[in-house]
Description:
heterodimer, A: five-stranded antiparallel β-sheet, globular, B: mainly beta, seven-stranded mixed β-sheet, four-stranded antiparallel β-sheet, 0% helix
Amino acid sequence: GQNIDQPTEMTATEGAIVQINCTYQTSGFNGLFWYQQHAGEAPTFLSYNVLDGLEEKGRFSSFLSRSKGYSYLLLKELQMKDSASYLCAVRDPGKSTFGDGTTLTVKP
Amino acid sequence: SQTIHQWPATLVQPVGSPLSLECTVEGTSNPNLYWYRQAAGRGLQLLFYSVGIGQISSEVPQNLSASRPQDRQFILSSKKLLLSDSGFYLCARGEGGQGTDTQYFGPGTRLTVL
């Protein structure tokens, strides 16, 4: 099975940088996903990592270390609209298992 | 483009009543389809997935069932709802290789069981 840990809540200031961590224990690994979910809405796909290293996509970057069972999502130049829940999900050969999400609040 | 439709958007049902939630997908053929449930403040729990018509895999034994009568239609049902069935139900399609597909979600159905 899978066990995924993320911080429950984080707060950051508009224009700043924030890093959201995700650690996992897995019996099989086919990749790690990050999703963004605004309150009351469905999750939207942000990134996918299957190899170690950093994947950059605009203001968002995602990092993976398979040996450490660790990933982070880095958000730069924070905007108010980035206030949302960020879900880490680990894929094994059968399915994806989601963490409970990190609620990020961006303050002016 | 590929679109996922879910209805209804919101639903309030009494305990013991039946349930039918529908998901349809446009713009793709033979997609992997998934049903998830999200309790308030929690992550997504996989309920069922399907790799083709009539093929359903159940992840969590409970009073829910799923069916896939057509290639792009996925239905979640219950004969008798429980209070614990309340939640946000999300249908997703998979894009990519088997075992590594990225999941894209529909708008969801918010179910309240009273």
